[in-house]
């Protein structure tokens, strides 16, 4: 028995699959099963044809048997027209560009609001930082959908904001913010703000306060110190936060669906329509794959920056 | 104990000269954090070109005092004058002072050159001049070849020199150094001590150094202020502090010392006779501050000022002589430390140079020895 175990261990260790290897292998296996395999399935569907059947797409690989000739052949049909359709129809291109625009504006707003927040929390008394961070994370304890519905109540005509503006005498009638791009910006900025604040806070909090003292000592005024020391040193946090907001924001579906107007075109919505309204799974899959390709670029930039950071890490 | 003083004996002593105005004047400065008094009514005068050490343990208030000079903390009470100007309300970036931080605080996202150039850039110095002055500074700290490196690519000693170059490039009249050698290993520390003193003499900058290392303070400084619990216990040259400590705290903080409690028997001019049961003999101290007969005092005697002998010495009047048994010997190479137990139970520490080789040493464990010292070896401490 012991001999068998030791043989197994030595065999596994020879191929680097023991101890540390197993620890890494388990999550990799999980990712393979539930991310890579579904991805490959979607990738496969994107090359098939839409048919009225169950499931509603043709199979890529077919085994054709010709009874008369007595031959059989393996037929692989790759339908790339789905991808051509994406390029040919303005709808998809506009939806992609609009998604990128909405994600970019959301990221910018999150950065503009999140940076001062993270800065203030990082500079707060250490005893107060915990509760303040808690408040940032607190909204996660409520259902995401309920929070979006709450925004409908705030943004609609005769809603909280509208009434407030009217009461203050800024506007004379009800203001309808809901069902516009601005409602989407507000809702998405609200949703993704914690994802910006968390990485920013963690880089700002780690910063050695004596660096700012050294800058002041060498003649730098506080605002110049911020530009020359704090901002460049928080760049990794800015990049991480921006990508954490930007990447999911591009594919966002629920917020634009609930808060956006009929002309708020986003790729997530197009995807939904193709899948459920048109039941055109192949095109929907092609949209998803194209979206992935669009997002792989920022992810790779992120990885690159992280790698450089690790290299320069002290 | 401490290494050779690096200071040349011909140095000026501006604090002895009544006509000199101090460059830095600290007047009754108090700093409190909540209920905690970090610095308690400290007054100090520091003169141009001094290498002044603030020496004390942790929590003695030395770093707080330095940070108030730099402008990072404001005194709760009292005033600080630098070059005659009241520093109240003047922010760090407008003070004619630079500081070298204990952690060095090098900017990690900048190269060595950019770090050193930072201070000049803030003042809007012309680019060509910045380049020349940075090169000159890096040459002085022997880092010319490392200008393009980032701080994390340097060793601890190199970082320390970058920090020094950065704090000196603006040619401040006053440089504050917070534990400048704290992060270096022993050999490098000794070498850097010499370098610091050379640079300070060459540039004619006033240095104020915070340190907890008494040896460092002794070797480098022109004067030392020993701090304890936010109060200055004594200010003086290294020799004064070592040879004539004013208080028990100073005597015990600097080097090792033997303390004998006793009572004054008689005072004759500056000669004091103290009877000490602990010592087992009467002690005669020359050049002592006179104290009334009967008052309780401590007599402090440095270990190296006591002579050991195996032969009972009969001469003299029996003062400054006692006997004991050698309990411990620590051989340190150049010297040996002997712990001698007196019949009273008191243990006396004696250091003696190893003039002969160890194998021939005449004194060994459990030997009965006679301890003798001369009248000016001891110091009378009343507090």
UniProtKB/TrEMBL annotation, chain A:
Location within or outside the cell: Cell membrane
Alphabetized Gene3D superfamilies for the sequence: MetI-like (1.10.3720.10)
Keyword Cell cycle found: no
PROSITE patterns (alphabetical): ABC_TM1
Membrane topology: Multi-pass membrane protein
InterPro entries membership: MetI-like, MetI-like_sf
Span of domain ABC transmembrane type-1: 96-302
Record keywords: Cell membrane, Membrane, Transmembrane, Transmembrane helix, Transport
GO biological process, one term: transmembrane transport
Major site of localization recorded for this protein: membrane
Cellular component terms per the entry's GO annotation: plasma membrane
Assigned protein family: Belongs to the binding-protein-dependent transport system permease family. CysTW subfamily.
PANTHER family registered for this protein in UniProt: INNER MEMBRANE ABC TRANSPORTER PERMEASE PROTEIN YDCU-RELATED-RELATED, PUTRESCINE TRANSPORT SYSTEM PERMEASE PROTEIN POTH
Name of the protein in its database record: Putrescine transport system permease protein
Species in which this protein is naturally found: Azospirillum oryzae
From TrEMBL, chain B:
Xref: SUPFAM superfamilies: MOP-like, P-loop containing nucleoside triphosphate hydrolases
Gene Ontology molecular functions: ABC-type polyamine transporter activity; ATP binding; ATP hydrolysis activity
Keyword tags: ATP-binding, Cell inner membrane, Cell membrane, Membrane, Nucleotide-binding, Translocase, Transport
SMART domains the UniProt entry points to: AAA
GO cellular component terms given for this protein: ATP-binding cassette (ABC) transporter complex
EC number of the protein: 7.6.2.11
Chemical reaction(s) catalysed: ATP + H2O + polyamine-[polyamine-binding protein]Side 1 = ADP + phosphate + polyamineSide 2 + [polyamine-binding protein]Side 1
ABC transporter domain: residues covered: 24-254
A Pfam family annotated for this UniProt entry: TOBE_2
Top EC class of this enzyme: translocase
InterPro entries: AAA+_ATPase, ABC_SmlMolc_Importer, ABC_transporter-like_ATP-bd, ABC_transporter-like_CS, Mo/tungstate-bd_C_term_dom, P-loop_NTPase, PotA-like, Transp-assoc_OB_typ2
Record-stated family: Belongs to the ABC transporter superfamily. Spermidine/putrescine importer (TC 3.A.1.11.1) family.
Function: Part of the ABC transporter complex PotABCD involved in spermidine/putrescine import. Responsible for energy coupling to the transport system.
Subunit note: The complex is composed of two ATP-binding proteins (PotA), two transmembrane proteins (PotB and PotC) and a solute-binding protein (PotD).
Protein name per UniProt: Spermidine/putrescine import ATP-binding protein PotA
Organism in which the protein naturally occurs: Azospirillum oryzae
């Amino acid at each position: 028995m012991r001999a068998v175990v030791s043989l197994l261990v030595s065999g596994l260790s020879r191929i680097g699959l023991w101890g540390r290897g197993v620890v890494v292998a388990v999550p990799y296996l999980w990712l393979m099963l539930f991310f890579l395999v579904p991805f490959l399935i979607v990738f496969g569907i994107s090359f098939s044809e839409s048919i009225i059947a169950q499931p509603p797409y043709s199979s890529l690989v077919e085994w054709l048997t010709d009874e008369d000739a007595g031959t059989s052949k393996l037929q692989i049909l790759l339908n790339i027209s789905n991808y051509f359709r994406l390029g040919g129809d303005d709808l998809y291109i506009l939806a992609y560009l609009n998604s990128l625009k909405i994600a970019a504006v959301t990221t910018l707003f999150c950065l503009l609001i999140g940076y001062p927040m993270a800065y203030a929390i990082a500079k707060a008394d250490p005893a107060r930082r915990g509760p303040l961070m808690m408040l940032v994370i607190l909204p996660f304890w409520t259902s995401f959908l309920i929070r979006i519905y709450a925004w409908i109540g705030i943004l609609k005509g005769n809603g909280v904001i509208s009434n407030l503006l009217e009461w203050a005498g800024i506007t004379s009638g009800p203001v309808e913010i809901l069902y516009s791009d601005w409602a989407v910006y507000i809702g998405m900025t609200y949703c993704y703000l914690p994802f910006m604040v968390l990485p920013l806070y963690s880089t700002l909090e780690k910063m050695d306060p004596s660096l700012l003292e050294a800058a002041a000592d060498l003649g730098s005024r506080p605002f110049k110190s911020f530009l020359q020391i704090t901002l460049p040193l928080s760049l990794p946090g800015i990049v991480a936060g921006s990508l954490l907001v930007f990447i999911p924001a591009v594919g966002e579906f629920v917020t634009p669906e609930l808060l956006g107007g009929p002309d708020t075109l986003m790729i997530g919505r197009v995807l939904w329509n193709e899948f459920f309204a048109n039941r055109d799974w192949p095109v929907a899959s092609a949209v998803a794959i194209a979206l992935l390709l669009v997002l792989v670029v920022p992810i790779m930039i992120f990885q690159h920056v992280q790698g450089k950071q690790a290299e320069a890490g002290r | 104990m401490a290494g050779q003083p690096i200071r040349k004996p011909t140095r000026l002593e501006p604090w002895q000269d009544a006509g000199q105005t101090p460059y830095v004047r600290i007047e009754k400065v108090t700093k409190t954090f909540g209920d905690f008094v970090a610095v308690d009514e400290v007054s100090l005068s520091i003169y141009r070109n001094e290498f002044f050490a603030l020496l004390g343990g942790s929590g003695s208030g030395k770093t707080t005092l330095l940070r108030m000079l730099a402008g990072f903390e404001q005194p709760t009470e009292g005033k600080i004058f630098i070059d005659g100007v009241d520093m109240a309300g003047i922010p760090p970036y407008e003070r004619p002072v630079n500081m070298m931080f204990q952690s060095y605080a090098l900017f990690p996202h900048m190269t060595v050159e950019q770090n050193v150039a930072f201070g000049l850039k803030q003042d809007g110095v012309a680019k060509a001049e910045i380049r020349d002055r940075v090169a000159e500074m890096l040459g002085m700290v022997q880092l010319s070849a490392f200008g393009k490196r980032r701080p994390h690519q340097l060793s601890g000693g190199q970082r320390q020199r970058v920090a020094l170059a950065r704090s000196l490039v603006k040619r401040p009249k006053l440089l504050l150094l917070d534990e400048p050698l704290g992060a270096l290993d022993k050999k490098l520390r000794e070498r850097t001590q010499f370098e610091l003193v050379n640079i300070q003499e060459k540039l004619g900058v006033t240095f104020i150094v915070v340190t907890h290392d008494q040896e460092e303070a002794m070797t480098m400084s022109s004067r030392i202020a020993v701090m304890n619990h936010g109060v200055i216990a004594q200010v003086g040259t290294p020799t004064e502090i070592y040879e004539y400590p004013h208080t028990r705290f100073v005597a015990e903080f600097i080097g090792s010392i033997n303390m004998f409690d006793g009572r004054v028997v008689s005072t004759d001019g500056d000669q004091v006779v103290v009877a000490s049961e602990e010592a087992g003999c009467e002690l005669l101290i020359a050049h002592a501050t006179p104290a009334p007969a009967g008052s309780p005092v401590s007599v402090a005697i440095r270990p190296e000022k006591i002579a050991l002998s195996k032969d009972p010495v009969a001469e003299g009047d029996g003062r400054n002589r006692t006997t004991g048994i050698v309990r411990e010997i620590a051989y340190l190479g150049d010297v040996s430390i002997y712990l001698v137990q007196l019949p009273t139970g008191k243990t006396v520490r004696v250091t003696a140079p190893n003039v002969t080789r160890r194998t021939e040493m005449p004194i060994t464990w459990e030997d009965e020895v006679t301890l003798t010292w001369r009248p000016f070896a001891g110091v009378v401490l009343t507090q």
